[in-house]
Amino acid sequence: MIETDVLVIGGGPAGSSAAKHAALGGAKVILLDKRSEIGAPKRCAEGVSKKGLAKLGIEPSPRWITKEIDGVRLTSPDGTDVWLTEEEIELPEAGYILERKVFDKHMAMDAARAGAEIRIKTLATGMDKIEDGFIVSTESMGKTEEIKAKIVIAADGPEGHVARWAGLKGSAKAKEMESGVQYEMVNVEFDREAVIEFYFGSCAPGGYVWIFPKGDDIANVGLAILQHKATKPAIEYLDVFIAKCPATKNAQAVELNVGGDPVGGMPKKMYDDNILVCGDAAGQVNPLTGGGIISGMTGGMYAGQVAAEAIKEGDHSKKFLKKYDKITRDDLSHEIDKYKKVQEYMLTLSDEEFDNIAHAFQDVNFEKISTTELVKALVKVSPKALLKLGKFI
After folding, report:
1. Tens digit of pLDDT for each residue in 159-169?
2. Cα dihedral 358, 360, 366, 370 sign
3. Which phi and psi angles does 305 have, rounded to 5°?
């Protein structure tokens, strides 16, 4: 029997963040990941904000940044563009496009340097509750082992099993799980090469299409849809878009990624005796953009910190671990709840309404760029938005 204070299941950014901070807090930590290579395959458009990295104390590195972004292009169904770039406005906060295969390993290495033990190609196959902890069954290359942990941190993604094994509900209902598909492509022809592009309307029912540049003529080109809003699989919508879009019609795919994205917000409970849940497994995702790297790592940081405190105090009960739930919601809930309302509003829009908003945006004077500023502008140009969103701005 292997014994540890904290067992983190899932080696994505949220799990590595949890393992790092638990280890920094003095706990004995094991981090499991079922993959043979942390970071691959990626299931992400790879965008993060500078502000988010700074908040987490992560120093940007050219090893895992492929492109610095200086603007946004929003395109409505009739092709009307809204450009928000340094040429038009002052950008107080731009962002980066990552290489997740490098970034995720970098984060796992950070956890290892902090003192966590990393176990790759190790699958958690089951979990049993004991008096003060869990015994987790694992399998690695034909070898089975059991790990006894005082606290388990579930960071095993949107389809994860660990929280359910512990009797907690999953983060997303089926109707709130976006179906995402993405190609990494070459020969992409950009109008402006340092701008991330979003396309709205029936090209991606319930979601949007994105083109995220990664340097030279390379980009992530993908979309996410809500299946109950769609009439065909996500990849068929993407292939149709790529064939028609001037930027991608001559491009070639070199990688295909698929996956689910939970956009229903955080569940009512992300903790219980001896367990904490973070990252996509806890719905720590922006419901409007689908982005979850920074928010998931933030949840992971808090989970690791609280787990380390619990180990020091010798109290692994839900009463003590509730502290994680409180500080995480205090930090993340306002943004998640606000953008959930915006997402719900966007789901009511027809192609014609998207076009009308884009036309009205042509006359809006944006002073700075952020999702909040865009929503403020939306409220100004759309009576329907004012009715549904006014009180959230």
Report:
1. 889 999 999 98
2. negative
3. -65, -45
